[in-house]
Write the structure tokens for this entry.
Amino acid sequence: MSESTGANTAKPSSSVKLVLLGEAAVGKSSLVLRFVNNDFQENKEPTIGAAFLTQKCSLPTRTIKFEIWDTAGQERFASLAPMYYRNAQAALVVYDVTKPSSLTKAKHWVAELQRQASPGIVIALVGNKLDLTNDANEAAGEAQPEEGHEPSPADGDEATEETQEEPDASNGDARKVPTREASAYAEEEGLLFFETSAKTGVNVVDVFTAIANAIPESSLKSGRGAGAGTGQTSLSGGRPAEDSRVNLGERGPATAKEGCAC
Amino acid sequence: MESLADTPWDVTISGTGLAQSLLALALSRSGKNVLHVDKNPYYGGPEAAFSLQEAEEWVNRVNNETGDHSFEDASVWRGDGSSEGGTQLSASRAYTLSLSPQLIYARSQLIPTLVSSKVHRQLEFQAVGSWWIHRPGDSGDKRLYRVPGSREDIFADDMLSVKSKRTLMRFIRHIGQTQQSSDEAEGEGSSLEEEVGDVSLTEYLTSKFKVPDELHTPLLSLCLSQASPQQTSAQYAVSRIKRHLTSLGVYGSGFGSLTVKWGGGSEISQVGCRALAVGGGVYVLNTGIKSLSHLAEDSNGEGARIQLSLSNEEVIKTKFVVGSNWDLPTSARSSCDCDRVARSISVVSSSLGSLFPTTAEGGPVPVGAVVAFPGAALGQADDSPPVYILVHSSETGECPTGQCVLYGSVSISGSDGQALIESAVQQLLESAAGPDAKVLWSLRYTQLGRAIGSETGSVQSVNLADRIVRLPPSSLDLAFDDSLIDTVKDAWQAIMGDDAIDHEFMTFEDREGAYEE
């Protein structure tokens, strides 16, 4: 996929830990599968075990390597999430636009993240299964964030909302969560907001690109977590923060590969 | 996954401390059905890391549930923050305070284990640089003295007399040689042990090398002995000083030990648990084992099972149960022969930058330092145990910039030990920080754990009876204790049975989709 197979140039590369949260069956794993493999499986089995995948996202000035943690299948116990969002720089909270209860659950996750995760965590609220609504095609262009600027939650969604003011019931529109409701909530809470379809691919890459753009430079430098100070105290020589990192790959002859320490 | 009771579990692991989490990692590709529960609402057990608020909640839990934790007598002290200006305590989540700030020697078996299991890339390792001794200076005032921990250091030291340098060099060379010969001799029966005999460190240094008294405590600090030089056996000390020396330069110049960013053992625990979660293990926090009973082999050939009642009211069946004493129901516990030590965690309003000099050209900036206070430096008798303070800079991610975290420990438990640590913290601030530096917040507790015997090689293996794998208590050592790896391997072998193939322990390929280049 174009977004992630960017040339391996000398652009700085940073790892970003991203945790995927949301009610069962909203399509969390499908979103990641679309992003990582550009693939979609109809009637995908519930994920057994938690998935861990990585994917690169190439920005003009840097490459972001997402480490994606999927709580897949274990939502019921809510016990993986605390470990996953610890030191995560980004969270993708997913709901299903055809299922209002899933937005309620998503709001719980957002509240928990705001209470427990790193203070600087970037949270994106994502309404998935757009293909089941009448906005399936229009939304593709409209919710697209403008090039080169951080998408504000409401960007483009006003237009989407217009089209869905008068839902055409005869057309089999399964939408139950109005865009406006979710986007207003996202704006209030300072979240990135997208409606996506893992099935058609609409907006999927955009979500990850928007997150990559929204991660503060300072948190990239110091690695994970925004709770800790960034940069180095002057007393330790004023060297960049990366200098405290020990690369286990440095053992023996210098064959350390790029990215080994991540 | 509707109900835990629906699954025939192969293994139920109780507790997410380091031992259980490394076992989780070991079982992550085994194909076994593993249920991993923890009675606590957090990961890490005795190796957890906390924000300030979580630490305060933990204090209540420890004090209210006496006997159910390997901790006692916990308390929090918080400055009033009313003082004008100066650094104030930051928000709760700006801190990640570790109950297990142990340092990891480059030669520890933990490192190759994390590497062969491919989880090291999820961890960020940082260097522990200098060792310091706090002791009275020439003019009677207390001062910090940097322990010459390598040949280069000894050479460059301007405090040592030429004679002392020569003596130290001879001692270090001797240790190096015994290492070589024991390597050649193959096997553990090292010539070192025979040669050192059954004497104290003091006696050994004096009689064999004529090392001057003033160098005894610096050498003691390199082995992180929690007893005085007089009460530390030479065998124990020498093997640990050897470990210190041979670890230098393994992963870069100027340091030999490491710490894990974002909370030490807690990070390693979570990496182990994540690996098992990715491998299909099911995680349930806030859920412990209430009671346990053995079920006989049933008629349809299903092997014998253990029935567990969980605190979330579910009843499950499992072939094996694993846990430390504090993670098993009272009836399944074994007697605990534990030592108690006093520990404290202090957040201070100074970066104490002078403790973290870069120890070699081109080496990483150290984020950790060790400060040892011999008994005498704290007004105690010469043979009283030293206080150690592991100092972590804000680069560890444990506190905000401009502050530092001091992890104090002494082998005297209770208020006497806490008073010694407090005195050591005050002296350290006086010596290494500006006059305004102060403690902003501190957590004090007694920790129970495996006796820090001054004997070597007393590996505690797991206690396996009736398919209950009882893990020994955590080590109270200030450096990661490699016997933990042996413990985990024993537990893994017990569970895997005939499928346990020695060289496959903790050796995995990268998972598909992860870290593809």
User: Anything to note?
Assistant: Residues 100-116 of chain A form the longest helix (17 residues). Residues 1-9, 139-169, 222-241, 252-262 of chain A have pLDDT under 50 and may be disordered. The domain at 13-139+174-220 of chain A is CATH 3.40.50.300 (Rossmann fold).
